[in-house]
């Protein structure tokens, strides 16, 4: 984009290098939140301990949904690499839709388990872990909407589709974060 | 695509307006200058706050500020110096110099660069607007829970703190990412990552520290806001939260932050000392590794700010040992500068004087740092003026003196004019005398029991003399800065000489005119070593063999 005449020294596109750094930073962001949660669990009993297995239905379904969206994201990326415009539009839209359903499911889960922000320290932890993750997912949804729009306009070629590559990294990353959150919130 | 670099596409219309051509600029040199000027302004505001603090403390029972105003002023002094002064000054130097030193045309993301500047100035104005809207933050720069909880801090003061921190930290994160990617991607042909000038290397490490440390304070500020506005209970020990959680999260950012504040100045040192000693930097590789080691270790010492909170024995041992350890790479740097000077042809320019002042002051701050890193000593002096003395020796004697060395060194590049040397030396000695008058007695006062963050003290405590002495010192220091401002103004009124390389420098920023043209370089000398310009000027003594 900028300074196109200078060859990037790492051999990677600058947007990709920046994305790697951003995701590193995000890891410290979620790492801090997770540490706060684990710290609390060291001090107080976690309210979801010993909850019936049926409590897991919504979060598990949600998790499954997100896993599927990782797959459709990958299909979108493959389409972009192969220059399949229609497939790219379709798969990025499907991914986006799955993301929205996931966020809806998270809202359902949040309201159904009855933990309110002001309930002890944990209410807040639950809110922020779920909330900041959902915000990231919504950011991913916006990225996907832009990708689908640009794909429709024919902005991408098999050689030039950095936005899709970067969008996919982000999407995988946010899904990965959820896998960690799911594990520590519900499984241990 | 763009025929004219350094501007937004719609700039050409605005070209005629001087104001707009600066306000809409994306040129790294202009953004660098905007950063430096704005941050210097905030630095002066923080300095005026320091003078108010010193006036209030000059005599026991003084009535200059009163307790409530005092708390706001010392909190904003700390916040200003850290977030609005020292950090953005470093980013300003980096903005101007990093692309030049690596032979690039601009930063890699010029528009993001403009964004981080505008977020910075917005954050600063936002934070200061609190003075007019019910009062400024008043709980100290590290804003300990539970003091910040709604029960003890009604009103909006701490909301200003939290929101201001969020804006400023996002701005710094964006800036850091830009610096990292620029250094990784935009180096001139032939310049390996191990050959970047030490200032560039230090900015790379600093930016990495920032990118990994800022998220913690972002989380801290966000959780604080939620506690205050949504009624969550993160930091409310009585209601299922834990006040200690705040300290852990904050200091996980807070300690790396102090290295964010010192490493850029150390980078400047590693440019200035070799050039004015006519020798290459001694042990370049070791210094480079020591910077990286500091970067890693800085994330493992946070709890040495919490020795007095009743941590377990094992945690005390671990964090004390770590803190001693981080003294090692720091000491290595000092020895390397000394070894660089050893046997060199030293030119005592103002820039070099400030650099030498840095070494002496920083060693004092480093030694008292080792003191407060040892648990029993820290238990004695924590929260006393000993600590205030310690960190001003590193922040003022280190960071600020380093920046002043950088100012005298790079001002000719930025403006095409050399700052006055006589005036410069006058300001150097004034500042040196002043700062030692303020900060040296603080160690004694701390040992004599004077706590920090108190707005006054009893007359029979025996602290009055040194407090008055310090206040005089503060005004002498301020006079030194007045000399610097006069120097800058008078120099700018003289016609420019546009000398490209007044110091007979080593690195690429001196290979172009002063100030450089919009695209920085017409042509670059070949880069085969760490001192490409030296090689070009002295082929017979080149570093490459
Ligand atoms: C003439 C220069 C300066 C003077 C006279 C001065 C004076 C002071 C004093 C007396 C305090 C303690 C207030 C109290 O605990 O009640 C203080 C705190 C502080 N100063 Fe300075 N200072 C100066 C420059 C700086 C610089 C250059 C920096 C940083 C780059 C800095 C950073 C801080 C910080 C972080 C605090 C702690 C605030 C807190 O307790 O929350 N100061 N200063």
Q: What would you note in describing this structure?
A:
The complex is a heterodimer of chains A (188) and B (545). By secondary structure, chain A is mainly α. Chain A has one domain (14-41, 56-187): Four Helix Bundle (Hemerythrin (Met), subunit A) (Up-down Bundle), CATH 1.20.120. Chain A contains five helices and no strands. The longest helix of chain A is centred in the last third of the chain and has 33 residues, at 120-152. The N and C termini of chain A lie far apart (46 Å). With 545 residues, chain B is an all-alpha fold. Chain B contains 16 helices and no strands. In chain B, helix 4 packs antiparallel against helix 5, helix 8 (243-277) packs antiparallel against helix 11 and helix 10 (313-341) runs antiparallel to helix 11 (350-373). Chain B is globular. The relative contact order of chain B is 0.10. The interface between A and B is large, with 37 and 43 residues.
Q: What is the fold's blueprint, element by element?
A:
The complex is a heterodimer of chains A (188) and B (545).
Chain A: H1 14-43, H2 57-82, H3 85-112, H4 120-152, H5 162-187
Helix pairs in contact in A: 1-4, 1-5, 2-3, 2-5, 3-4, 4-5
Chain B: H1 11-14, H2 18-23, H3 28-57, H4 66-101, H5 110-129, H6 157-185, H7 198-229, H8 243-277, H9 284-297, H10 313-341, H11 350-373, H12 375-381, H13 385-415, H14 421-447, H15 464-493, H16 532-537
The complex binds protoporphyrin IX containing FE.
List keywords for this structure.
heterodimer, A: 188 residues, mainly alpha, Four Helix Bundle (Hemerythrin (Met), subunit A), 5 helices, 0% strand, elongated, B: 545 residues, Cytochrome C Oxidase, Chain A, 16 helices, 66% helix, disordered N terminus, binds protoporphyrin IX containing FE
Q: Structural class of the secondary structure composition of chain B?
A: mainly alpha
Percent range for β-strand residues of chain B: under 5%
The low-pLDDT segments of chain B are 1-5
- Outline the biggest β-sheet of chain A: none
* CATH homologous superfamily label of chain A: Cytochrome c oxidase, subunit III, four-helix bundle
**What is the CATH domain class of chain A?**
Mainly Alpha
Return residue spans of chain A where pLDDT drops below 50 for at least 5 consecutive residues: 1-5
What is the total number of structural domains of chain B? 1
């Amino acid at each position: 984009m900028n300074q196109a005449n200078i060859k990037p020294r790492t051999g990677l596109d600058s947007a990709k290098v920046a994305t790697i750094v951003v995701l590193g930073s995000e890891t410290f962001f979620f790492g801090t939140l997770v540490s706060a949660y684990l710290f609390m669990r060291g001090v107080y009993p976690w309210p979801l301990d010993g909850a019936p297995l049926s409590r897991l239905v919504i979060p598990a379904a949600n998790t499954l949904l997100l896993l599927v969206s990782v797959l459709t994201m990958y299909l979108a990326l493959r389409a972009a690499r192969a220059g399949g415009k229609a497939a790219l539009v379709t798969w990025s839209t499907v991914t986006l839709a799955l993301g929205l359903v996931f966020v809806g499911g998270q809202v359902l889960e949040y309201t159904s388990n009855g933990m309110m922000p002001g309930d002890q320290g944990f209410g807040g932890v639950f809110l922020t872990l779920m909330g900041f993750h959902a915000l990231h997912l919504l950011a991913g949804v916006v990225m996907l909407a832009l990708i689908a729009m640009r794909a429709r306009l024919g902005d991408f070629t098999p050689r030039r589709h950095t936005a899709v590559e970067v969008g996919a990294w982000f999407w995988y990353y946010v899904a990965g974060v959820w896998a960690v959150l799911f594990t520590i919130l519900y499984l241990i | 695509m763009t025929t004219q670099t350094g501007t937004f596409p719609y700039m050409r219309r605005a070209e005629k307006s001087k104001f707009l051509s600066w306000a809409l600029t994306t040129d790294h040199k202009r953004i660098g200058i905007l950063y430096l000027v704005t941050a210097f302004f905030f630095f002066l505001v923080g300095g005026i706050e320091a003078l108010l603090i010193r006036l209030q403390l000059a005599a026991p029972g003084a009535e200059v500020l009163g307790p409530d105003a005092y708390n706001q002023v010392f909190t904003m002094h700390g916040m200003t110096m850290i977030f609005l002064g020292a950090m953005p000054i470093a980013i300003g130097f980096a903005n101007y110099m990093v692309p030049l030193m690596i032979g690039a045309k601009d930063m890699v993301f010029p528009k993001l660069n403009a964004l981080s500047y505008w977020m910075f100035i917005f954050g600063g104005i936002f934070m200061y607007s609190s003075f007019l809207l019910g009062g400024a933050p008043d709980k100290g720069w590290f804003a300990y829970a539970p003091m910040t909880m709604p029960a003890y801090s009604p009103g909006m003061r701490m909301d200003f703190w939290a929101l201001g921190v969020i804006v400023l930290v996002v701005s710094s994160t964006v800036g850091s990412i830009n610096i990292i990617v620029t250094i990784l991607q935009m180096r001139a042909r032939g310049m390996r990552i191990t050959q970047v000038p030490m200032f560039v290397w230090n900015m790379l490490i600093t930016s990495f520290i920032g990118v990994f440390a800022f998220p913690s304070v972002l989380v801290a500020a966000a959780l604080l806001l939620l506690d205050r506005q949504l009624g969550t209970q993160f930091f409310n020990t009585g209601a299922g939260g834990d006040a200690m959680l705040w300290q852990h999260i904050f200091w996980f950012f807070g300690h790396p932050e102090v290295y964010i504040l010192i490493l850029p100045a150390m980078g400047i040192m590693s440019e200035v000392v070799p050039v004015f000693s006519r020798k290459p930097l001694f042990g370049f590789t070791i210094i480079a590794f020591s910077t990286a080691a500091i970067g890693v270790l800085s994330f493992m010492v946070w709890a040495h700010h919490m020795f007095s909170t009743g941590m377990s024995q094992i945690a005390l041992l671990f964090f004390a040992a770590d803190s001693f350890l981080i003294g090692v790479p720091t000491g290595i740097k000092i020895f390397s500068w000394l070894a660089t000077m050893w046997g060199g042809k030293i030119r005592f320019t103002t820039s070099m004087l400030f650099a030498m002042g840095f070494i002496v002051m920083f060693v004092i701050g480093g030694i008292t740092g080792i003191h407060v890193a040892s648990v029993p000593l820290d238990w004695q002096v924590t929260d006393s003026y000993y600590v205030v003395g310690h960190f001003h020796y590193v922040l003022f004697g280190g960071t600020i003196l380093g920046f002043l060395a950088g100012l005298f060194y790079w001002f000719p590049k930025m403006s095409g004019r050399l700052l006055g040397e006589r005036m410069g030396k006058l300001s150097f000695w004034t500042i040196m005398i002043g700062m030692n008058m303020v900060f040296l007695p603080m160690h004694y006062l701390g040992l004599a029991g004077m706590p920090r963050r108190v707005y006054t003290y009893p007359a029979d405590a025996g602290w009055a003399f040194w407090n008055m002495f310090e206040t005089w010192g503060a005004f002498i220091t301020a006079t030194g800065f007045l000399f610097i401002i006069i120097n800058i103004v008078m120099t700018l009124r003289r016609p420019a000489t546009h000398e490209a390389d007044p110091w007979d420098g080593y690195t690429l920023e001196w290979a172009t005119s002063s100030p450089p043209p919009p695209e920085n370089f017409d042509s670059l000398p070949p880069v085969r070593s760490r001192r490409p310009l030296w090689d070009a000027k002295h082929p017979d003594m080149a570093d490459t063999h």
